[in-house]
Description:
By secondary structure, this protein is α/β, with parallel strands linked by helices. Helix content is 42%, strand content 12%. The strands form three sheets. The chain has a five-stranded parallel beta sheet with strand order 1-6-5-2-4. The chain has a three-stranded parallel beta sheet with strand order 9-8-10, with helices on one face. It has a two-stranded antiparallel ribbon with strand order 3-7. It starts with 5 loop residues before the first strand and ends in a 16-residue tail after the last helix.
Amino acid sequence: MPSFxxxxxxxxxxxxxxPKCPVLIDVRTDEDFAADxxxxxxxxxRPAREVALWAQELVGRQAVVICQKGLKLSHGAAAWLRxxxxxxxxxxxxxxxxxxxxxxxxxxxxxxAPDAQGRTLWVTRSRPKIDRIACPWLIRRxxxxxxxxxxxxxxxxxxxxxxxxxxxxxxxxxxxxxxxPSCTFDVMVEEFGLAVGPLSHLAAIVRGAxxxxxxxxxxxAGLLAVSLGLSRMYSDDNEQLEAxxxxxxxxxxxxxxxxxxxxxxxxxxxxxxx
Length: 274
């Protein structure tokens, strides 16, 4: 049972990956972090002693503060946030309890170097369809909520990556791209340590739609149809991305919570009547 102003790992995991997830702040010491350089999905690192400096980023938002054991560092930083008018809880038991529960963590070594504002910057081909919407959704919801995505002509992706310090994805001959039968979304799910049930299920749907193997999942054909429809509704890639985030939010929640649910409009007709 979580203590007052604390949230249990399983309850927090239900929020991770959803639009309503609080801001997750990892305040572990450098020594504790070096012993386990992985993050709760979507968490960002901030020094506990500098809470007065970064608290302003959280005005009007909710936060969960995370340390190694859920004790002094997280409780102290959360209390400071609350006195500043910011709703804040701590992760009960910290990262040790999160790991003991078998919940996924993102290895920091896989994250691109952040820009001056602390955001990861990514670049890919313009006119996205499936992978190039699914991957930004995964990154925004589970890796870096503040991630920035640039959509440019295919011939310019690598040059833009070099000039602007961005990480290229879903193009040939880069780390974050198709590998054998796997699409880029598959690769990101695996490399970021997120291959858990609902995301693995979603990955099969994305793979089927993105690689013209619609037999991989019954939902793949529907995702392909909706994705192509979105690409014709929006001429601006960033507007299409925002619309696509909602689509993948819904698909993730279906994979997580509703795969056994069916729907059939009930009628009150007596059996045998026309």
